[in-house]
Structures are given as C-alpha cells and as structure tokens.
Amino acid sequence: MTASQQPQMLPVPDNFPVHWESPEEAAGFWTADLMHWPHGLSPLSATMDMPAFGRGLAQAGQELRMPFRDVGFKHVNGYVYTRFSPWSYDPTEMEGRMQEMREAMTKHIPGLLERWYNEYEPEVRAINDETLKGDYSQLSDADLSALLEKVCDKREREGLLHFLAVFPAGGAVMGFEETYTQLFGAPRAGEHLQLLQGFRNKSVEVGDALWRLATEARKRPQVMKVLHEVPPAQAHAALSEAEQGSAFRGAVEEFLDRYGWRANELDVAEPTWKEQPAPVYNLVREYAARDDYDPEEEFKSLVAARRAREDALRRKVSGNQLQMFDFMLSAAQQYLPVQEDHNFWIDQQGVCVQRVPVLEAACRLQAAGCIDSADDVFLLHYEELQEALRDGHGSLREIVERRRREREEFRRITPPPAIGTLPPPEVLEQENPMVSKFFGAQPAEHPDPRIINGNAASAGKVTATARVILTLDEAHRLGRGEVLVCPATMPPWTPLFAIASAVVTDHGGILSHTAIVAREYRIPAVVGTKVGTAIIQDGQRITVDGTAGTVKLED
C-alpha cells in the first residue's frame, strides 16, 4: 500500500460522537443502513435481535463462500451501521474467492424456490409459532431468562436461512442480467426485471386480503360510517357497538391472526398490527373509496404482459442461446417470491414474535418497580434485561430516561452515511453489483436544480402531487393518485402502492422491496435519491420518470 493509499479516518459531525470498542473496529468502513432502519433501532433490538441475526448472516456467508471475511453491525446513536470486510485486498486472492462463490451459487440456485417452500419456510414458521404460542407466565425469572437465550439462538438460525435464500436469489438475478445483456444488449430502465414480475408473493397477498376486507366494508353502511367518523386507532373498539360491526370486526381479527404479526418498522420495540390495528382500518377505509380496481384481474394482466415479453424475446434466439436464456430466466424468476416471502416470515414475523416473551419480562420488571412502563424495556440493552431477570430487580429508571433523551435527541439528526476508516481507492472502485442493486448506488447530482436523480426502478411517467410520508403512521395523509415520497418502504407499506400513482424513496436500489412492489403494481418508481424527502415539499407538483430515474420539481 502506497503512502497515498494509507487508511483515512472519516470525519464525523461534532453532534454525532462515535465510540469505538477497539482499533480494529475503528479500522473498518461502516455504512449507515437507512433502508431497513431509516429512523434508527431501539437499544433492545440492537443488542438482542441484531447480533443473533448477524451471526446467521456470517454463517451463510461462509457456506456460500461470499467475498467478505466478516460482517459487523454497530449501533451508533440509535442508527445501524454495517461493515463487510473484503475477503482480501489482493486481486488474485479476491478472484479466487469469487470463483469459489460462483461454484457455491451453482449448487444453491437450482431448486431454490422449491427448497424455500418445502424446507426453509416451514422451519421458520415452526420457529415463530413456538415463540408466539409459548406460555411464559408460568416460568420462573431464571427460566424466562434461559428461554430468551433460546429465542436468540432461533433468531440466529433464521438469519442463516434468510441469507441462504436471499444471496443465491440475488446471484441468479445478476447471472440473468449478464445473459440478457449478452443476448439482447444492455437492458434499458430495468426492462429485464419486468420478466421477473407477476408471481404470487406474501407482500401483495396481504394487500389483496385488505382489498377483500374493504369490499366487505362497502357492503355495510354502518361499518363505513364508523370508518369515516372514528379515528383508525379507535375503530376496532367502536365496531362492537355498530350495527353489522361485530361481524366485520371478526373478519378483521381473522386477517390479524393471519397477517397481523408485522409492525411499521423492523424493531422489536414496534407494536404489531395485531396489537394496534389502526393501520389496517386506515387502509381499509382508503381501499373502500375505490370501486375501479380488481387485484385478481390486475395480477392476471401482469402475468400476461410478462409472458408476452418472454415470448417476444424467445423469438429472437434459438438453439443453445434459447436454452441458456430459459435456464437463466427460470433461475432469476425465483427472486421475487423468495425476497417478499422471506420478508414476511423472517424479517417481519420473526422480529415481532420476540415481543411476546420480552413483554412478559417487561411486565415483571414493571411489577418489581424496576421500570415505570412495559415499553421501557425496549430502552434497555439485552444484557441489562438478562441481568435484571437473573440477578435482581434494581431500579433501571435512570438508564431508561437517559436513553430516552438520547434517542429523541439523535432522531433529530441526520446520521453521516459512513464512519470509520475509508478503504483503499481500488476497493472503493470495486463496486459490488448485488449490493448496489439492492441498496442503491449513489446517484450523480443533476445539473438542473429542479431535477433529482435516482435509480430507475419501475418504468412509466407520472405528474402528480407529492405526499411526503416519513413513517407509516402518517399513511392516512396519502390520497389516491398522489406520489408517495418516503425514506424507504418495507412490506407493511405495500398496500399504499394501490393508492399511489408513483413512488420516490431516499434509499434502495432496483432490487429493493420498493422497486419490486412498484413493478408489481405497475406504477413508476425512482428509488435511492438520497435527498427526496429533504428536497421535495409536501403537496408539491412533481414528475416522476421511472424510466429515466429522475424526479422533476414542477413548482
């Protein structure tokens, strides 16, 4: 390494102090993950769920021979930073590791979706059910502590299964893109990704189920009266007093039993829809205002369009080229259901079911006077929770209040995109296409200040009113035909895609959840703008060009 290539510590703002556990940790290049956690992560989730999940990721990385030596997660001022240490800085060694990864992927990609349905998903569901349905009230504090350790072990297993599914699925897409480029030229505006759409998946399934609830609500005038006159947070209780309300409330509870173990954010601290169904009632009310949409017909149309594109491309090739195209396409078409279904079972339900034993522990600490309310438990570190269960019930109020103040303070601060040590220039130049397509590459600044660049995620062009929605709690402000502008979307946001005319996000790439779902609903999307929610004003008229990857400020 030359003098010009010596590691360089990245500067951090004075109001964002960083504490390093060791010189080795400070020597890493850490990037903020604002796509999964745009508003940060609670202390308990960061110290209980995240380390266990990260251990599963590391195991999958070794099994699949991924080109990183280790992976790290760091909770800094409430925000999540990740580090993937390259396997080697030596090009020859790195190429050798890449070859090992390609060989591993060759074994894992064929039959991946079948393996997901028949092996991975059933195991994950069994893990979640065991955590969800446990009777924790009869356990001693020591036994509850031991059970929480087992919950972490199970979460590690889910992390392993998560990445054994997602890494090969993403690799299949990369291979298909290479084949597509070889046969038909470089794809424009993600046209090749349209061939991966139109497959059943859990994210759209939840939206369809909400649509069916809205259809039932429209048949009941008294139910619609409640939905329009009562705030969503109070609708569940109010329905029990309304004519025809009890039957509809029962249908909502069936929905919640099946789909309600999800939260607005990927955080154990977030109440689930099962606990607080206000998002469900808000979405049902918005869906009920539309009678011009049939999700099943839309799905059939999407499938027909995809098959027509497949047939048109097949007519351009023959022989070995056709066989290669069909093979690579079939492999890549596993991506959408794997990506969205693992999101449902592992990323959402797998996080949320941990609330059940944690809240049991919280109630015990509250009863013992350690904390003032059960929700205070989420401001503790996992080790502090375990110590309170195992060794005594001393007051934790001071820790809770300090962390609450700190979290509120840092939520008002935009975290730096990277911390730690800048890697050598040649490493920065070696862009990982799978990472950039999922998280989104940094867009170049457009010379016209009225135009924001991003990643072209879903084709089409729409001019409409922008609605800046920073959290799903604000989803009721999104009107039909408006542009959803947000930090990023996760599966609980999916039903909003049937309301919006287009989507713009700060974070994410063309293989992110936002991009996938926008293509499923066939609305334009520009993702990974980095600055969309900061520059676009709520109520402003904008033009979203999902083909060019630009957003124009019209006024």
**Structural class label:** alpha+beta
Distance between the termini: 51 Å
Beta percentage is 5-15%
- DSSP helix count? 20
Please give the share of residues in helix: 40-55%
Write a structural description:
With about 550 residues, the protein is α+β, with helices and mostly antiparallel strands. Among the domains are: about 5-105 and about 395-420, no CATH class; about 200-295, no CATH class; about 435-555, Glucose Oxidase, domain 1 (3-Layer(bba) Sandwich), CATH 3.50.30.10. The protein is built from 20 helices and 13 strands. An eight-stranded mixed beta sheet has the order 6-13-12-8-9-10-11-7, with helices on one face. The chain is globular and about 70 Å long. The mean pLDDT is about 95.
Please specify the SSE layout and strand pairing:
Elements: E1 8-9, H1 23-26, E2 29-32, H2 43-63, E3 68-76, E4 79-86, H3 91-108, H4 112-132, H5 141-184, H6 202-218, H7 221-229, H8 232-239, H9 245-259, H10 278-288, H11 295-314, H12 319-332, H13 335-352, H14 355-367, H15 382-391, H16 397-410, E5 418-422, H17 425-429, H18 433-439, E6 451-453, E7 455-458, E8 461-468, E9 483-486, E10 502-505, H19 513-521, E11 525-527, H20 532-535, E12 541-545, E13 550-553
Parallel strand pairs: 8-9, 9-10, 10-11
Antiparallel strand pairs: 1-5, 2-4, 2-5, 3-4, 6-13, 7-11, 8-12, 12-13
